[in-house]
Design a protein that fits this description.
alpha/beta, binds zinc ion
Length: about 210
């Protein structure tokens, strides 16, 4: 059974998720800022963090990764097609953060489409959903779908940053809409939703064409 807590962090309000099993073995997704708060929560709830994972490499999702890794000994997992952005402040939008620097941690593993990540009793399926960035990925764990900046409640991620691709994100959303069953969708910003609700009400996810961002 996958449980989670959501901590909005930083001035961009990124949702950092801690997903954990019944033994409190955990993964931290998108530690974007506020590393002290994240590490305090990990200590308070006695989580054993096995992995820090990124949905994509944009500064607002990654800035606390180094501290959380240093504080927990977790391994660092990054979508393969966003690896280069770790070392490219233009692609990571690091200049927005006033930090024209590289992130000085290296991934332990690069994630590709349909990879499986096992952490304790958690089994996480990687669904590569390019568009917001080339490597943007969703993570499915039990009934949870962590959607990063690909799918939001009622909206989708921007595609006008370096590496963005509006045609690719529409293909990615199509793929998500074809997933069997329903999921609790945990986006990178804003409230949670469900896949069924987004298929019904999100203009970017239904086939009418209305709302397409071209
Ligand atoms: Zn982003």
């Amino acid at each position: 059974m996958a449980n989670y807590i959501c901590m909005p962090v930083g001035r961009m309000g990124v949702n950092c998720y801690i997903v954990y099993d019944d033994d409190r073995q955990a993964v931290v997704v998108d530690p974007g800022s506020d590393s002290e708060r994240i590490i305090n929560a990990i200590k308070k709830y006695n989580f054993k963090v096995i992995y820090v994972m990124l949905t994509h490499v944009h500064f607002d999702h990654i800035l606390a990764a180094g501290d959380v890794i240093a504080g927990t000994g977790a391994k660092f997992l990054v979508p393969k097609d966003d690896e280069a952005a770790l070392y490219d402040p233009d692609r990571s939008l690091m200049y927005f953060a006033g930090q024209n620097t590289e992130l000085n941690i290296k991934p332990d593993r690069l994630l590709s489409d349909e990879d499986t990540v096992k952490a304790g009793k958690l089994e996480i399926r990687v669904v590569h959903t390019p568009g917001h960035t080339p490597g943007s990925s969703c993570y499915i764990c039990g009934n949870l779908l962590i959607s990063g900046d690909t799918l939001f409640a009622g909206s989708i991620g921007r595609t006008d940053f370096p590496g963005g691709d509006s045609a690719a994100i529409m293909c990615s959303l199509n793929r998500l809409s074809e997933l069997e069953g329903d999921y609790t969708v945990l986006p990178g910003h804003g409230p949670s939703t469900t896949l069924a609700e987004e298929k019904r009400g999100n203009p970017y996810m239904n086939s009418s064409g209305y709302g397409f961002d071209y």
